[in-house]
Predict the structure.
Amino acid sequence: QVRRGVRARAFGLDMQRVLNPAHLVINSTQSYHVAMQAFFDGMVGNPNTGLVASVEIVSWANNFQFQESTDLATVMEREDVPIISQMRKLNFVANAEHFLNINAIVEAKFDFLGKLMKCQQEAAAIPLEFQDNHLFNYARYVVVEGEAMGTGETIESQDFRVMMPQRLKMLLEGRGQTQTGHHQYQHGRMLDSANVYMRHYYSPCITRLTEEDLSLELGTVFTMHWLDFK
């Protein structure tokens, strides 16, 4: 059993105050702000620390201490053919980037689904006395009073500028006329799409990349490139 860890050193930063390791993992705008807040708290929370001039954020796959702890310098062989350390590093970095990309796709799918359902709730909460009012998008467009509104079953260019509350609800609902069950609604189809991606690509890919290889735990992430998988 090999213990792996990444040591962090800093001048002027109280790392003891960054107690939650999750605060240092950045994969979205929200987690970026969480990390920045954690570092800021570490700087100002201890009177014995100095002023932090800058904080560098790099991919964990490129951390030299992490690479050293994975014994990348050791020469491994498959059928008497050596797998040189440089090739293992290239595989590792490429696979790590692929991990982040497919994880970001999953997060984006469920994040958008959450936003859709929140918008549906807010649209449904519009009082009845406002149902005949117009909703104008003043934030991004110059809206002209009396502009014609969309009437089709799908989003039209006018919908980005003005629409009625009932039309907003209809578009958010996205009901399909030829589908049944939860598939007839937009959120149901989006949830199915996310589940299909998770079941048929994300999960099999993660499982394959983290398999043992050459008697090394998680060895596949070093010995194989994700493009080589079938």
About this structure: The mean pLDDT is 77. The helical segments are 29-44, 64-69, 85-124, 165-173, 186-209, 220-223. Residues 85-124 form the longest helix (40 residues). Strands lie at 76-78, 81-83, 135-136, 162-163.
